[in-house]
């Protein structure tokens, strides 16, 4: 007579341990999700202090949203923001790979400003 061999297949009797682990993980995620959802204040609820949330009026809109803008678009952006006459423009790629467009603009017929527009269309500097 041979001794009985006991392994995972005989202990589980055809049940999948992977399926049980997935069910357990799903149950844990559901419990954590419900706990987090119950503790978060909804966006439409009034602030706890009764004051309206502060808005940032200094954030510039992103132009192009993820696309890299060209030199012609940067010239248009600088001209719109300053209202002056464009004297010169050049593109500069920094060592980290970020592209900047430097646009020199004559403002009020007297002052020359160098405006830097980044690759996303944001005006970074004007002096």
Please tell me about this protein's structure:
The chain has 127 residues and is an alpha+beta fold. The chain has a domain at 71-126: Nuclear Transport Factor 2, Chain: A (Roll), CATH 3.10.450. It is built from three helices and four strands; from the N terminus they run αααββββ. The chain has a four-stranded antiparallel β-sheet with strand order 1-2-3-4, with helices on one face. Strand 1 and strand 2 form a beta hairpin. The longest helix is centred in the first third of the chain and has 23 residues, at 17-39. The mean pLDDT is 76.
Tally of contiguous helical segments: 3
Strand coverage percent:
15-25%
- Mean pLDDT reading: 76
**Strand order across the largest sheet:** 1-2-3-4
CATH class category label of the domain at 71-126: Alpha Beta
The arrangement of helices and strands along the chain is HHHEEEE
- Structural class, by secondary structure, is alpha+beta
Number of strands: 4
- Poorly predicted runs: none
Shape: elongated
């Amino acid at each position: 007579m041979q001794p009985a061999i006991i392994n995972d297949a005989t202990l589980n009797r055809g049940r999948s341990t992977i399926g049980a682990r997935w069910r357990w993980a799903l149950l844990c995620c559901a419990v954590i999700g419900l706990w987090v959802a119950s503790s978060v204040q909804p966006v439409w609820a009034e602030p706890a202090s009764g004051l309206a949330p502060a808005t940032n009026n200094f954030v510039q809109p992103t132009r192009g949203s993820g696309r890299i803008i060209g030199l012609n678009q940067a010239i248009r952006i600088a001209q719109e923001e300053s209202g002056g006459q464009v004297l010169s423009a050049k593109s500069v790629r920094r060592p980290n790979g970020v592209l900047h467009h430097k646009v020199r603009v004559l403002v009020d017929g007297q002052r020359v400003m160098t405006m830097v527009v980044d690759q996303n269309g944001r005006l970074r500097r004007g002096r």
